[in-house]
Amino acid sequence: MFSRRQILVASGGLGLAALVAGVLPKLSPGTALVEQAQADEAFEVTHSDSEWHSLLSDEQYAILREEGTERAYTSPLNNEHRSGTFACAGCALALFSSATKFDSHTGWPSFWAPLEQAVATRQDRSFGMVRNEVHCRRCGGHLGHVFDDGPKPTGLRYCMNGLAMTFKPVAA
Ligand SMILES: [Zn+2]
């Protein structure tokens, strides 16, 4: 027989495991697509609307803060093939390694996995579609969407706006 305390500890452990599983970025196919961020998600980096306006260009603001989308094939990061790191244009958090970048032929920089603890997702029902919105874990800036038609090993396609990111090549 389990004591009441043992049962409580066991269920508490399961709850913690579920919490951790919901926070860590998913690398297995499909699982990121059911993940949904809390409505009251709090971010480490916050600014007032006017501060964001002064920190970002108008185009960057429209994407990061208003969930806009840049026109396909307009980002120079589409053709960025050097080794390095793609970071959030809002708070400089490292988001993606060039090692996970692939050519999706969509006109947007695409990756099959984010760096650990880099992004979070929530369900986006705009434009009559159900999509999984991807945003920066640290400042909440909108980055793009994730789809389940990506390449191995994850099967995921993180379709990102180039304007939402900066690229830093590794020193040669
Ligand atoms: Zn950020």
UniProtKB/TrEMBL annotation:
The keyword Oxidoreductase applies. GO terms for molecular function: peptide-methionine (R)-S-oxide reductase activity. The keyword Protein transport does not apply. SUPFAM superfamilies: Mss4-like (SSF51316). GO terms for cellular component: cytoplasm. InterPro entries: Met_Sox_Rdtase_MsrB (IPR028427), Met_Sox_Rdtase_MsrB_dom (IPR002579), Mss4-like_sf (IPR011057), TAT_signal (IPR006311). It is an enzyme of class 1 (oxidoreductase). Its EC number is 1.8.4.12. It catalyses: L-methionyl-[protein] + [thioredoxin]-disulfide + H2O = L-methionyl-(R)-S-oxide-[protein] + [thioredoxin]-dithiol. GO terms for biological process: protein repair; response to oxidative stress. Keywords: Oxidoreductase, Zinc. PANTHER family: METHIONINE SULFOXIDE REDUCTASE, PEPTIDE-METHIONINE (R)-S-OXIDE REDUCTASE. This is peptide-methionine (R)-S-oxide reductase. It comes from Pseudomonas moraviensis.
